[in-house]
Amino acid sequence: MLEPNTRWVMRRVDEGAVRILAEQLQIAPLVARILAGRGITDAENARSFLFSDGIFYDPFLLPDMEKSVERIRRAVRDGEKIMIYGDYDADGVTSTYCLLKTLKTLGADVQYYIPDRLSEGYGPNEKAFRRFKEEGIRLIITVDNGISALHEAKVAKESGMDLIITDHHELKDELPDAYGIIHPKRKDSKYPFKDLAGVGVSFKLSSALLGKPPSELLPYAAIGTIADLVPLTGENRWIVKKGIPLLKETKDIGLSALIKNASLDMHQIDENGIAFALAPRLNAPGRLGSANLAVELFLTKDPGTAGELAGELSRINQERQDLVNRITGEAVEQAERLFRERDDKVLVVGDPDWHPGVIGIVASKLVEKFYKPAVVLSYDEENGTAKGSARSIHGFNIYENLAECADLLLHFGGHPMAAGMVLRLEDVDELRSRLNRLADQRLTEEDFIPLTEYDCRASLQEITLDAVEQLEKLAPFGTGNPKPKILVEDVRLSNCRKVGADENHLKTVLQKDPAFLEGIGFDMGPFADHISPLARASVIGELGINEWNSTRKPQIYIKDIAVNEWQLFDCRGNKNLPLWLAKVPEENRKIIVFRETTLAYIRERLDPGAVTNVFSDAEAESAVLDGQNVVLLDLPPTKNRLVKLVQGKRVSRIYAHFYQERDHFFDTVPEREHFKWYYAFLLKNESFDIGRHGRDLAKYRGWTERTVHFMTRVFLELGFIEMEKGIVSVNRSAKKRDLSESAAYRELREHVELEKELLFSTAEQLKNWFDRLLKSKIGEEKIWI
């Protein structure tokens, strides 16, 4: 057995729709199955999704777009001062740049302002707005924020400044009293697509102002859209599909410097490079300092300055990573201490030394490690408050549960999987208690097992190069359009091995005759010790193409593995006992020793107290092995001992070592003709000095000397001969008896047969024998190899 790391849930698939899509679009059934599972069952919609860039809607369908455009154009015409009020994350800085670039193109007198995350916090603030008034600003345009700025909107109005809000965050019941609110989710909005990022809304405004979508801004819109984790469907898909090719060819000095500093191949950039290399660098300055650095990078025309700014972004990003690593380590220690004191279902941890700019990332890492909802707090002891970020798991809506604790919170907001809050320090313990009580009521044990949603099952024969190339047409992948995960069942994982400098990755080949598929599992190296090449496994993974020396072939990026049957690990002949035994999980490990002589062998290699002695059939039959990883350290003295030990029991794994001091299998087992010749020889010789001439006789007959001594022992047991001081003579009065009446004869025959079946059988034969035995009931007839 090998339990998967996660719960596996398959999307529902309409097989009728699969057949229609495959036939009408002439696509692989695997691709059709994935489309159908994602709700794309109409052939025309599927054709559009695969083979076109999508739809760009008329920006004037957005509420207040027309009046906002007229107001901005009037401001440009009249020379009024305009202030763009941005946000400090990657979505915010790209939103700011897109509108700033557009207004500068139109000749506007425009500035931008991004609040400081630590001193001002998210969104508009009164102090900044009053300063704008003093500076002669007549029009404020927010990007990626502002929808909750009820008070600040009043301040702007009272100060004689018009306010246009462009945002995409969740709406509250009351909207700000602003000149215009451009938001796709407004209740009165007829806009066809609701999930634009902040930069998407900013890009729509730019498109309306310029009379067409500005292609030069699409790379920035694509970066911000991917960075903000909005669904990559609908119009967001159009933005990213259009933007990435333009990003690969960009001549923008700042963007080029950022790409170079991130060590990305410009012509190979995809959504992963944006998400994991560019977006973190754009997010970092807003977390630890001023997000203006990112906007200035985009604005500069000087290559030298661009290189310096890109380098600074990378330095800050590295500082952010180091900070996250330190705080995560401390948070993990604090969480584990809470586990010891009480088994909390919701982790609430905090410290005055934790930077508030990274606590959201730390919360995500806690969820990743413990798979429990996590609230990470930064304590402000001077003001007596705590600022927090929460991340959750499926089944626990963190926003709704925080709402039930609203009396403890000075401010809070968010959505089902993430939230932010501010509360008094004295209320932290009460918040922890209440959230845990709510979790006790609403979460089951199963909820604390991570969830993996996969698209469909697939056979190895279906995973062709052509099918995988077709799958790539589903890109770009991200939130709302994840890379497809498929389940491959009943395959053997051959040649499992650890790879990488730290041997932390898994390399294997999935096999089910006649097909095979190479697989790689990143950070799954330990699995190599827990998968038998004989086992039938189920694998969930993402499909890709491996290119090497101009050869392209499909491969699977393994995400999880399960083995739903008991496993046999063939350790026969392995001399390094401590090394291979260390690979056996200590939990549920049961080491079996059949012979007292083996205890001497293991004394210097293993604590004898860690083994279970099975020196009798009664001990074998009573041994509890269900769910255990059973190590058969030595060869049993009889087959029956092993049968009684394992028959009908539900073991998880068997590690077959079968140590013995020496093998008997390659001894010459005398046949009846050998005994007849030897007896006749002894009859001819009145006395035979076996000590002096036994070796010569063996050499003459082509036997081993051990064979001569063995036949002598059998004859003695049967009374056929007498021996005194090494001299053998025939007992002529002995009665006729069968060789099998000799205990020595029977013992050797049985032991040789035992070695043949347990030591010298193939691993496949041994597995089949154990299979039959484990499935049979106690008392049934024994079946041997």
Polypeptide structure, described:
- Residues 567-770 form the Single-stranded-DNA-specific exonuclease RecJ C-terminal domain.
- GO terms for molecular function: 5'-3' exonuclease activity; nucleic acid binding.
- The chain is α/β, with parallel strands linked by helices.
- It is built from 27 helices and 26 strands.
- It has 5 domains: 53-214, inorganic pyrophosphatase (n-terminal core), CATH 3.90.1640.30; 342-448, Diaminopimelate Epimerase, Chain A, domain 1, CATH 3.10.310.30; 455-563, Nucleic acid-binding proteins (OB fold (Dihydrolipoamide Acetyltransferase, E2P)), CATH 2.40.50.140; 567-663 and 759-775, Rossmann fold, CATH 3.40.50; 672-753, Arc Repressor Mutant, subunit A, CATH 1.10.10.
- It has a 5-stranded parallel β-sheet with strand order 3-2-4-5-6, with helices on both faces. It has a 5-stranded mixed β-sheet with strand order 7-8-9-11-10.
- Helix 1 (15-25) packs across helix 2 (29-37), helix 5 (90-105) packs across helix 13 (292-299) and helix 14 (303-341) packs across helix 15 (359-370).
- The model is unreliable at 778-785 (pLDDT under 50).
